[in-house]
Amino acid sequence: MKVKYQLILIAALLLNLCSCKKDNTTVTDSSLIVGKWSVNKITIHQALFTVVNGNKDTTYTGSAFNASDYFQFNSNHTAVESFSAEFSINGKTTVTDGAGHPIAGGNSFAYSIAGSTLTLTSTLIVPQPMGASSGSATETIIQLDANNLVLRQIQTGMESSTTTNTYYTRAK
Q: What is the tally of structural domains in the chain?
């Protein structure tokens, strides 16, 4: 009886392991990323470690973006990101000049793709956000096809973890 119980337990564990969904998106054609991609949605989820039920969610869609919100990937493995505002868990912040006119921000990168990992090495950030620094960052490619690109960035600190999914469509 004990042997039957152990066999049933082992079979149940193996079935459980085999049935888990794999979240391994592998980019088979990294050349698909080349081109201009317009932002159409950003979702942000923040889990606070120090507060019970301290999760926050924010979603930006449609009218939150304009023509200045895009990512341009070039075939020589350079990229330019342009943004009209800073989109955070607490709201959208627009940078303006002294006369109140919005200033689009930007960042230049060298990039590489390995599997589903997009590595971005910053070469210039304008305007320089407080606390920002140049260097390498990685994002996970959740979806990449002829018309859609979804990038996920996870930032973990001492008090929280923030997951940002940015949804792009190929610019026409």
A: 1
